């Protein structure tokens, strides 16, 4: 049981010799040219925890996941995922190229204890991605066909928990046991603490390129008094500086305009006024001039691309982080992919690693930057979620969490 949330976990069910459906999130980056999986982090995360435990406990394991969205280049079969999974599990791993037809059902019925069957990408069935209530999803052919075969249904896909899709919520009303897997459990324990009862000072660090969420994060995290301060980098910082009346150079304003971010400025101006001193903006920035990094004060930004927070800003952020007890970070401080502009992100990670704080990071690029700069193993909790993490930080819950709470049985 996860305290506070009252959600049942694998500790609350007997899975030995039982047929267990497991909704994982194997959704991985795929090379558009070769169609090969580029990063197996998510497959490994489920394999080394929930799936390994189920195999060791001699469950008959049926794995359900999606990969990409229909029409997108990364929409693909799960056959390669199954092969990768086999490398991480001490078990026979089979794959079936269907989801709930007779062939899939026969494969499930033929499973022996300790064996694993991966079903085809569940989004190949169009009914999967409709947003509906668990009760409505329970009437779909997916759930009607598979639920009678499952003794237990485990939801482990935290990174898809913002999607109330059929395979994520539809089994809840009809299976005997509907519980959280180990990946979900670990995420919920870490996130529940930082969202509800963080040790203080609690600092949020937001950067990256997706400034569309910035206003909502700030207003929720400060409005609910979750963070004491929000440190800003990336495009979020450029947008806030511009909203605060700073001249960030025409070229940088154009980038914000093209992404539609300027529309957020009235809301950001309100927030800057409402929370003085708690939304921390850079005091200097790094621009690129003739292929070189040049640090400039925010009052004197030339018309050159802003690619990182400045060194003085990074030092100030480091000081605040080192004195904190909780740090949540989403979004690199600059274009870390270019070594010259990875310094701001590096100094922030260095401070997180040196602090006594509980540190949590999430988001594909944020994790990639921590990994590239050598700090991944120094972070207390690396979330598997991108969009799910942001939505959780904003709302304090997710559709799938609500269903787990309601149907924990
Ligand atoms: N000042 C900046 N201008 C443009 N892009 C930036 C800037 N700072 C960071 N980025 C880019 O933001 C990207 C990551 O942002 P985002 O996708 O929001 O992160 P995540 O995947 O962790 O949620 C990186 O590729 C990085 O190069
Ligand atoms: O990878 C995912 O989200 P993320 O890229 O925000 O981490 C999830 O698998 C959700 O996928 P979706 O956004 O296609 O529903």
From TrEMBL:
Amino-acid positions noted as binding (2R)-3-phosphoglycerate in the UniProt annotation, renumbered to this chain: 42, 123, 163
Name of the top EC class for this enzyme: transferase
Catalytic activity: (2R)-3-phosphoglycerate + ATP = (2R)-3-phospho-glyceroyl phosphate + ADP
Residues involved in substrate binding: 25-27, 42, 66-69, 123, 163
Keyword NAD recorded: no
Annotated GO CC locations: cytosol
UniProt GO BP: gluconeogenesis; glycolytic process
Residues annotated to bind ATP: 337, 363-366
InterPro entries: Phosphoglycerate_kinase, Phosphoglycerate_kinase_N, Phosphoglycerate_kinase_sf
Family matches, as PANTHER family: PHOSPHOGLYCERATE KINASE, PHOSPHOGLYCERATE KINASE 1, CHLOROPLASTIC-RELATED
Record-stated family: Belongs to the phosphoglycerate kinase family.
Protein name: Phosphoglycerate kinase
Record organism: Thermofilum adornatum
